[in-house]
Amino acid sequence: MIRFVESIGHMQIWDVDGVRFMNRIKLSVTVDQFLEDIQNLKRFLEDEQYVHDSKIIRQIYSHFGFMPLFRLGFEAFEGDFLKMCRWYCGQYFISWYEEPESEALAAPSIARAIAVMLGGCAKDYSRKLREQNIRSAGYDDILRELMHEEFELFCRAKVVEALESGNGLKYIRSKIGLAHLTALCADEAPEMTRNYLSEVVKGFTRRRETITKSALSNELFGNDYYPYFSGADCDSRFHELFCKVITGEEKVQSKKFTQENYLEMDVRMDMWKLFSLRGGGIMTTHVNFAQINSPSLRTEVKHYMKFYLSPMTDRAVYPVGYIAHALNCLTSRNPNIKYAADISEADVKALFVFMETEYISPSGKKLNTVTINMVFSCCSTFFEYLMGDQRSSDIKSPRPHRNPFKDVSFVNISSYGKRTEVIPESIMEKLDAHIDELPEQYALLYKIFSNTGMRAKEAFFLEADCIEPSMHEDLFQIRYTPYKVLAARRKAGLDDFHRVLIHAKLADEIRAWAKETEKLRQRTGQPYLFLSLHPGSEGRMLGVTRFTRAVNGLLSRHSIGEDDGTPWHFTSRQCRKTVAVTLIENGATAAELAYVLGHLNSGTSMKYYAEVRKMKLAELNTGFFKKQFELRIPAEQLERFNEEERKLLYIDFRLDKRRVELGFCLQGPEIGGCDRRSNLYGCVNCRHLCTGRQYLKYWQELLAEQERRLAELERVYERTGVTQYGDFREYQQTRHLCDGYKSVVSSISESGCK
């Protein structure tokens, strides 16, 4: 029963179904109109008329005002009133969700739902909700909690709908954010989420697309969203499930894709997508035959590449590019060439001249001799296939009777290759000073390269337990697999691992990094020390390209270059050669060099001694030899040697070919063999002897002994009464040898040799 009780001051007292309700008097609204509004509100709520029209609730709001309406609803019709509020919340969510341009919601405001119910602007209602009388009554907290509950229910329904239909989660993510979406998936539908993710990754396999974290993230949530996915923005349970389904599908793809490469090698297609295993992951290689202009020659090359790749699909596909360059040049210069059989020796000779003198590559550079040799070698192999018994019977083009590329030979081709440079000491010092600015694993890799001279593959495939103890104090062994000589090692009966010594500090850094990345290896099942931390490829083998790019970036930032200002371009190969040359300069023998670099024989190491041949004559002065060998070499003696002879002299010193008892012999080959090599007296005063401080102790002993002999000889002469012994040959020889020792000791002491 609803009735008016009385008026007190500016307030009206009403009895609404036993609930006492007070409302401020409005002169524009009569008591009868208020009564009618209250009765209409009751019917409006009980009959759920709001489902069809909001006109009545808005009219009542215009009469009552914001606070009285909500106080009446909460105090007199609480259950039905909250039910209506929930319905309007749902209506707001529907309109918000269906509007593509609407903003994403993390914590939706109840003011937006009130605006749908009463009309007007949400900002006005937001302000009203902050008023003291609303807050003191607790209505704002109730409404916010109601809004949150409805939002959760709405989002859960949308997530389940998307998972069941397989329509994807991109749109939902754009509306509610990644953290909320992934938490709902993990909380409300974990099994459904697992099945959905499994089906999505299987779709990658059906399309023959490699599955990666970034690829799956983009498929689920939209392009370029992965950087946010692995952090706090994603629910950890969802991320764990996400990684688990990827790992499982990677195993399937690793086996399936490589076994089904033959499906891609279809001569009817101009683009082949082939897969191979690299560092625990799958590498995709695209073979583009469309770069060959002639369709008939393109078909012949496809048949050849199908034969070339069939036994081992992880082989390099560079022959296509080289052959394409040659065939395009040939057909552009001779339009009559339709098939390989049409190519004559004259065409090939003209091609050689063109490539050597006129051809400009797509990068704007002329071809070097090594590249031309590769082009002709690949073309020759291509012709051998077309002429041989292994030629496919599906090839309908004429069979060549002669290989015109076979007669083109390149003499001493290895001498044309670009030599790996040795990193100058000044650059090494500056790089060492800034190397810790790199990401930790890149800095550690550089230290391993510069201390051991490992090849890139050997360093990048180091395993977490690669550090072993050694017999030497403050030194440890680092164990690695020398892949380049692995087959030769096995043939020689050696194990698969090579070990070299490193200092304790580097060993500690390696073990610390292994401990820091232990969880990543456990998660990915990889044993390797260096795994990618980059979003999208996390847990895969680290690539040498990113490492060298990082080091070169460091060089660029600090303007580290050669003395003339030329920027230095770093490659990992430079470290190996730098280690080798540094060892040679510090006296390492060929056998010691072979041990450090992992060569199976010292002959392979001998090539590094030739690096000194690049040094300038001015560098090979007396100061250089004094620094390198701690020797005293008279300048006038060294002047007898030209630049080439000084380089050979340096190598002879390194190989101990000129060593004598107390130094090295400088006698040139033009003088002939030395007849004093077994005569210490002859070496002491020989102008060809160069010695140094490391021999000073022995020279001092010889001087002391010779001075004793000279004094003893003088005493003998005095006892026998001989006073004119200065011309005696025995005395002269003893005296001359003593003076020679004094001269050498004095010269070494004053020369500054250390």
Radius of gyration: 44 Å
Q: What CATH first level of the largest domain would be assigned?
A: Mainly Alpha
The global form is elongated
Largest sheet: 4 strands, antiparallel
Q: How far apart are the termini?
A: 115 Å
* Number of continuous helical runs: 33
What does this structure look like?
By secondary structure, the protein is an alpha+beta fold. It is built from 33 helices and twelve strands. Helix 9 crosses helix 10 and helix 11 (190-206) runs parallel beside helix 13. The longest helix has 27 residues, at 139-165. The chain starts with a strand and ends with a helix. The mean pLDDT is 82.
What is this entry, summarized?
It contains 33 helices and 12 strands.
